[in-house]
């Protein structure tokens, strides 16, 4: 439990298995940037990764950094001990600033659960676990107490 | 070009059956399934030699303990059925996919009488330990990692449908001003009806205070917003409509099925979090019928989580968009003698998590006028049945007599 009154996530984090399609995403935080695949033709961001741009079916998809800012689309404070030893933690659904149909399930951290609200501006922050950099989100500076 | 024929109307539900339903019954899943199946076959006025089709959702080996029930090969062999058509599977428009497939198989002439079942033994499987999340015990060094869609949610402890559905509820609170006091009425109404259902799991009265005092699972959903794991099996016989006059009990005619999924098939990427694919399934169902929402006399709407019933009420047009909170508040409109009697057996919240098939069974009970103490006073002619939520949803209209 942090001073904010909530854990940063579950007591044990299940990690993704890295492969050639997802490695760029889960290791992106190593240099502090969040990345998504982006179409070279229609310029849409695409998530989760797929082989061909589902918008235009034409361009190639290349990982590109995004600003790392987003908005809380919805959230919940989990209390149930699905994962034994977990303190309450905030699961958030964050829409990235660049494109409103790209969302991440994540944890909202560095603030009290009561302060989390839909529409809240957030910034990415990474938590390293083994060879994975999990993108989490914290209140954007102007909203931080 | 003439409009396409609505093939589901060539099918009826000719028989229904249900095993004992309870917490930790201590009986095997095949045992319960055979009970339900034999009941349904007899109820349809048939013998097992008449059954030439078999279907289930989801089929063996899927999900956490006690979720899947026995496979169709196990049931076929246990009953020594000789089949012309058989089907089991997880993917499709929710739990009712097995019923929809059976309707179409009958319409296509692939089978004449299809036995469709859904069995759960989640209560026994969970023992005293309670409900598990998906992959909840995984993670950490040396423990298997996850690929596929679960990789996007499990690392964040979003390991249960309770978490995903909680975010739907939160979003509905934001967009529509839904309150916990309103949401409570799905649970309170279920409990009120369960008191009149001898097979229900929880029959003791529940008050709004009880609801509000219950422990939180994942805000804003508390314990009583989550259905009650149970052991039990439900079976129906889907027959060709030309059997309607021969079945010993009232035939429940399939009027329309709703199967669409037009948004992205994902818990976190679907375009409208307040509706998910209930929107699409309901729209596709209404496009296949001359009936209107105002014709619905009884509604059995999936309550794996209370919030899903609210979504179905709105998307099926049984109340106005965004208005399900005020609509259910106080419980009058959704009572047995209300405008739209809802989840008349107690639903999954109180009668047990029979996973969609309990809804279907109860709709038939009500259309047949066999609800006993919980029978809707004016015997219904049209029932709406919906199962599933999030990106997995299907619905259907059943009628008493041809419509």
Would you write up a description of this structure?
The complex is a heterodimer of chains A (145) and B (403). Chain A is mostly beta strands and 145 residues long. Chain A contains one helix and eight strands; from the N terminus they run H-E-E-E-E-E-E-E-E. Chain A has one helix spanning 23-26; strands at residues 35-39, 45-46, 61-65, 69-78, 89-96, 103-107, 121-129, 132-139. In chain A, the strands form two sheets. Chain A has a five-stranded antiparallel beta sheet with strand order 6-5-4-7-8, with no helix packed on it. Chain A has a three-stranded antiparallel beta sheet with strand order 2-1-3, with no helix packed on it. In chain A, a hairpin with a 6-residue loop joins strand 5 (89-96) and strand 6. Chain A starts with 22 loop residues before the first helix and ends in a 6-residue tail after the last strand. Chain B has 403 residues and is of the alpha/beta class. Chain B has one domain: 3-Layer(aba) Sandwich (Peroxisomal Thiolase, Chain A, domain 1). Chain B is globular, with a radius of gyration of 20 Å. Chain A binds chain B through residues 9-10, 12-19, 22, 47-48, 73-80, 82-83, 86, 89, 91, 93, 101-107, 113, 118-119, 129-130, 132, 134, and chain B through 132-133, 135-141, 143-147, 149, 151-160, 162-163, 166-168, 170-171, 174, 215-221, 264, 267-269, 271, 273.
